[in-house]
C-alpha cells in the first residue's frame, strides 16, 4: 500500500528506484558468473577454467 | 528497452568481443608460460614422491599435486578442448565483469567515452592490480598458501579497493578521500596469506615473465571491456 502510494505520487523517484533495482540485480548476476567461473571449488569447473584462473590472477590451486 | 535488458544486451555483446580478444592475447602471452610451468610441476612430484611416500601418508601433499592426480576429477583434453574451454571461461568472465560495469553506467545515468575508459581502468586496479600486489599472478606448480584463505583475501581486497576508489572519485568531501585511502591500504596492512619457506622448481624468471604478461593482458582487457560496454550501453539505453 505504502509503496503504491509513493510510486503514484512520486513517479520520478520510483523510476529512479527501479533503475537502481535493475542495475543491482544485473551486477549481482555479473558477480555470480565471475564467482562461479573463477572461484568455484568444484573440480570439473576448476579444471575447465584452469588457464583462465591463472591468466586472470584469480587464486588457484 | 528496459534498463535491465540494456545492461544484459550490452554485457553479452561486450563480453563476447572482449572475452574472445583476451583469449587470443592469452594464447600468445600467458598460456605458453602456463604450459611451460606445467612441465616443472609434473616433474616435481615424481622426483620427490617415491622415497617419502610411506612417511608422507596422512599428510596432505601440496594442494595442486593432490588435486592434479585425483583420478576421478574430470579434465579437458589437451589442445582444442582445453583452449575452447579457456575461450568459454574468458567470455563468461568478461560478460560477468561487463554486467558489473554496465550496472554502474546505469546507476550513473550513462557514461561518455572517456568515463567508460576510466571505469575500465578502475576495474583493472580493483580486480588485477590491488589483489596482485599481495597475491602476484602465480604459475601452476608454484607452492601457495591454502586456497580458501587466498580467495578470501582476494575478495576482501577487491571489495575494499572498489569501495575506497568509489569514495575517492565519487565524493568530494575530505572525509571520503581519507576513508577511501584507508580502505585501499587496509588489506595490504593485513597482508595476503603467504607460504613460508616454500621451494619451487619453477624458475623465478618464468614467474616474473608471467606476472608481466598477466598484468599487461589484463590492462588491455579492462580498457577494451570498459570502452565496449560504454559504447553498447549508450546504444541500447538510447532506444
TrEMBL record, chain B:
It holds the Pfam family CbtA. It comes from the Bacteria. Keywords: Membrane, Transmembrane, Transmembrane helix. Residues 51-72 have a biased composition (Basic and acidic residues). Residues 44-77 are annotated as: Disordered. Signal peptide: none annotated. The chain crosses the membrane at residues 7-28, 87-107, 116-133, 153-170, 177-198, 210-233. InterPro entries: CbtA_put. This is Cobalt transporter.
Amino acid at each position: 500500500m505504502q509503496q503504491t502510494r509513493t510510486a503514484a505520487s512520486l513517479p520520478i523517484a520510483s523510476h529512479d528506484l527501479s533503475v537502481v533495482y535493475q542495475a543491482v540485480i544485473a551486477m549481482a548476476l555479473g558477480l555470480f558468473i565471475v564467482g562461479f567461473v573463477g572461484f568455484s571449488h568444484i573440480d570439473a569447473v576448476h579444471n575447465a577454467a584452469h588457464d583462465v584462473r591463472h591468466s586472470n590472477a584469480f587464486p588457484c590451486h | 528497452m528496459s534498463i535491465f535488458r540494456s545492461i544484459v544486451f550490452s554485457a553479452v555483446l561486450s563480453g563476447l568481443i572482449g572475452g574472445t580478444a583476451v583469449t587470443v592475447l592469452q594464447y600468445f602471452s600467458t598460456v605458453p608460460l602456463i604450459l611451460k610451468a606445467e612441465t616443472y610441476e609434473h616433474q616435481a612430484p615424481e622426483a620427490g614422491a617415491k622415497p617419502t611416500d610411506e612417511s608422507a601418508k596422512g599428510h596432505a601433499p601440496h594442494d595442486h599435486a593432490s588435486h592434479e592426480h585425483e583420478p576421478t576429477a574430470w579434465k579437458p583434453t589437451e589442445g582444442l578442448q582445453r583452449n575452447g574451454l579457456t575461450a568459454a571461461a574468458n567470455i563468461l568472465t568478461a560478460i560477468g565483469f561487463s554486467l558489473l560495469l554496465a550496472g554502474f553506467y546505469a546507476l550513473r545515468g550513462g557514461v561518455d567515452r572517456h568515463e567508460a575508459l576510466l571505469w575500465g581502468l578502475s576495474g583493472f586496479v580493483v580486480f588485477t592490480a590491488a589483489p596482485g600486489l599481495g597475491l602476484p599472478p602465480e604459475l601452476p606448480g608454484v607452492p601457495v598458501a591454502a586456497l580458501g584463505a587466498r580467495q578470501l583475501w582476494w575478495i576482501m581486497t577487491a571489495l575494499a579497493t572498489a569501495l575506497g576508489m568509489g569514495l575517492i572519485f565519487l565524493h568530494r568531501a575530505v572525509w571520503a578521500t581519507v576513508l577511501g585511502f584507508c580502505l585501499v591500504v587496509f588489506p595490504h596492512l593485513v597482508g595476503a596469506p603467504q607460504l613460508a619457506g616454500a621451494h619451487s622448481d619453477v624458475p623465478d624468471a618464468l614467474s616474473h615473465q608471467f606476472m608481466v604478461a598477466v598484468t599487461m593482458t589484463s590492462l588491455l582487457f579492462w580498457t577494451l571491456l570498459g570502452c565496449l560496454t560504454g559504447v553498447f550501453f549508450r546504444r541500447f539505453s538510447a532506444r
